[in-house]
Structure formats: C-alpha cells, structure tokens
Design goal:
- It is a single chain.
- By secondary structure, the chain is mainly α.
- It has one domain.
- It is 69% helix and 4% strand.
- The chain has a three-stranded antiparallel sheet with strand order 1-2-3, with no helix packed on it.
- The chain is globular.
- The chain starts with a helix and ends in a 5-residue tail after the last helix.
- Belongs to the SEDS family. FtsW subfamily.
Length: 386
C-alpha cells in the first residue's frame, strides 16, 4: 500500500513556502550582522531538502519493524542530551538568554527538545496502548495509573522549562499529553482535572519568574482596554494595569498584518521586516508573510495546514493498531498546538510564547524533527485502509 500523498505534498508545499520567505524576510538581519546575502536562504534550502528526503525515506520503512526503534532513540538520546548539555562547555552549546538550548555541531546547531517532542509522543503512545484501556475505573484507580506519566512529565518540565527556560514547549507537551490520555481511554473527568492541573502548573511557572510576569503584564496592556470596556467601571479599575512597558514586537506585528491588507504589499516589499520585527523570520514569520502576501496568502497557508492535519487525524482515526492511532494523533496535536499558540501570540490574543510555526519558521531542528514525525505518520498511513 502507498503512503498518504496528501500529507507528503502538503508538507513539501509548506516547507517550500518557508524557504521562499527565508530569502525575503531576514533582509535587515543579513545587513545588520553582515551575513552573506543568501545565508538564511541557503541554510533553509539545505535543511528543507534534507527534511523532505528524510520524510520520504522514513515513509518507505515498515512501521512494524522501524517505529519502535526511531521513537525510542529520539526519546532516549534527546532526553540524555537535554540533561547533559548543561554540563558541556560553552564552546559546544549555544546560549539563549542564559539558557543552553542548542548543541553546536560542525556547520550547524541542533536543538534536542524539538526531536524529544516526537520521541515523547511515541513513548506515550507505546505506553498508553499497554497500560490504559476503555474499562471503567474509579478516579483513584485512574490517578494511580497516570501517576508515572505525571512524574515523567515533571522531569520534562525540569529539562525544558527550568534548565532551558522554555515554557512554551512545555505547554505544547502538556496539552498533547492530556488529549492523548483522553483518547487512550481515560475518563472525561480526569481530562478536566488534567486541564486544571496544567493551568495551575502554568500559573506557578509564570509567577515564579520575573520576566514571565513582565511578559504577561505587557500583553495585558495591549488588550485590557477592549476587555475592560465590557466590565462595570468599578470592576474594570481593579484589573487595569498602568505603566507597563510597551510590547513593541506585538505592536509592530499587528501593524505589519494590517499593512499587508488582503493581497499584501508584494513578495519582498514588506517594510516592518526592516528592523521593526527583529525575529520576523522565526517567531514572527506569519506577520512578515501577512504583510507581503496579505490575508489571502495566510489563508492559503492555513488551508495547506488544515489539509495536512485532516489527513493526519484521518490516518489516526483509521489505525487499528492503538500505538499507531495514538502516535499519529500526537503528531497532529503537536503541529496544531504550535500553530495556534504562535498565531494567537503574534495577534495578541494570548501572550507570545516563542513557539516556531511548523515548517515555516527559520530553524533546522524544528523542520527536521517534524519531517521525521510526519515520515513516521506516512509509515503508518500505508497500513490504513481507505
């Protein structure tokens, strides 16, 4: 049987779009830091080509023989790498705001957390298929059943949110874990408790970090007038925050989207990429794309992503093997939550989290990890009956 072509070609289309905009958007960064003119384009082109080849090569393997090896290697090696990289000298790791997130290799840097997410999803799928079933259980029995997974997740929180200071990735993993548990066979009441617990954990993580508190205040400063206008004046005054720093990145992001209009300013003709949006080719890539190709271009990208997710979830729903069903579901959830969190962040619906846009943001680790995950989904799709 053949792999799902819709999944493969929609991924190729998204990667190609990302390569095109890696030439257009980083203009200011190239000039300011004196990079070679095609620095970002060439690197994204090479990574995109390798990612597409990896996705195709993995899709040709037999899932019954290869899935477990790929999944456990990603999970085990990347977990070890995330823990060990903090003991490595600065010559071997790259810092981001004081946190060590990338391992330096000849010619490029690798972020283990991106590959760990795929391995983590596979481990959960493999373990849930063996430990959790549809039989009715008491809440106490369910808690005992999921306790090891909570402990495992807390280790992931320590490795990612504390050692790497990356709360956004933890939020994506937490939401994926909770939804996968529900589809594995846990009750809806446990799902509600899990969502509440994840919310409490996020609140604790925010209020124990000064920069996260400042980020929340900065975000609230942009939306408070609209929200508080719906409340009585006495109540609104209680929630109003004064004197917060202006979130210039979000302001410029919104202005870039507005400036693009429906059809955009034209490929390469954006102006907010010229020093206003400092991370326009990474975290704010959607805002940069929106300015140059407009709402129409964003609708095309969103449509490609929806086609991809629909086909992935279709493979999941038709997989008779529970491990395959849960793993493909998990990969679809990772892509969904990452896109939603980024798009909500750049439009100020939620605070910005620093999550890459799947297949579009500049960065080799994210693209390669997603291509491996999608390649594994393509492996599974060969076992699914149309």
């Amino acid at each position: 049987m053949q792999a799902d072509k819709w999944i493969f070609y929609s991924c190729v289309a998204l990667i190609t779009i990302g390569i095109v905009f890696s030439l257009s958007l980083p203009v200011f960064t190239v000039l300011f830091f004196n990079y070679e003119p095609y620095h970002f384009f060439i690197r994204q082109l090479v990574v995109g080509a390798i990612g597409i080849f990896l996705m195709w090569a993995i899709s040709r393997l037999d899932p019954d023989k290869s899935m477990v090896w790929i999944g456990f290697c990603l999970f085990g090696f990347c977990a070890i790498a995330m823990g060990a990289m903090h003991a490595l000298p600065s010559s071997l790791v790259t810092d981001a705001g004081g946190a060590k997130r990338w391992i330096r290799l000849p010619g490029f840097s690798l972020a283990p957390v991106e590959f760990f997410k795929i391995g983590f999803v596979y481990f959960l799928a493999w373990s849930f298929a063996r430990k959790i079933d549809e039989r009715k259980k008491s809440l106490k029995q369910e808690f005992k059943l999921i306790l090891p997974y909570i402990f495992l997740f807390l280790i992931a929180v320590y490795l990612i949110a504390i050692l790497q200071n990356d709360l956004g990735q933890v939020v994506v993993l937490a939401l994926t874990l909770i939804v996968m548990m529900l589809f594995a066979g846990t009750s809806k009441r446990l799902f509600v408790i899990g969502m509440a617990g994840a919310s409490v954990l996020a609140i604790v993580a925010i209020f124990t970090s000064e920069h996260r508190i400042l980020r929340i205040k900065s975000w609230w400063g942009t939306v408070q007038n609209m929200v508080l206008s719906l409340m009585p004046e006495n109540m609104a005054n209680m929630f109003r925050v004064e004197g917060v720093p202006e979130p210039y990145q979000i302001s410029h992001s919104l202005n870039a989207i507005k400036h693009g209009g429906f059809f955009g300013e034209g490929l390469g003709a954006g102006v907010f990429k010229l020093g206003f949006l400092s991370e326009v080719h990474t975290d704010f890539v959607l805002a940069g794309i929106a300015e140059e190709v407009g709402v129409l271009g964003i609708l095309i990208i969103t449509s490609l992503l929806l086609i991809l997710l629909f086909r992935i979830f279709r493979v999941s729903s038709r997989s008779e093997n529970k491990v395959y069903h849960l793993f493909t579901l998990g990969v679809g959830l990772l892509i969904s939550f990452s896109f939603i969190m980024n798009s909500y962040g750049i439009t100020s619906i939620t605070p910005i989290k620093g999550i890459a846009v799947p297949f579009l943001s500049y960065g080799g680790s994210s693209i390669l990890a997603l291509c491996i995950g999608v390649g594994m989904v393509l492996m599974v799709s060969k076992k699914v009956k149309d």
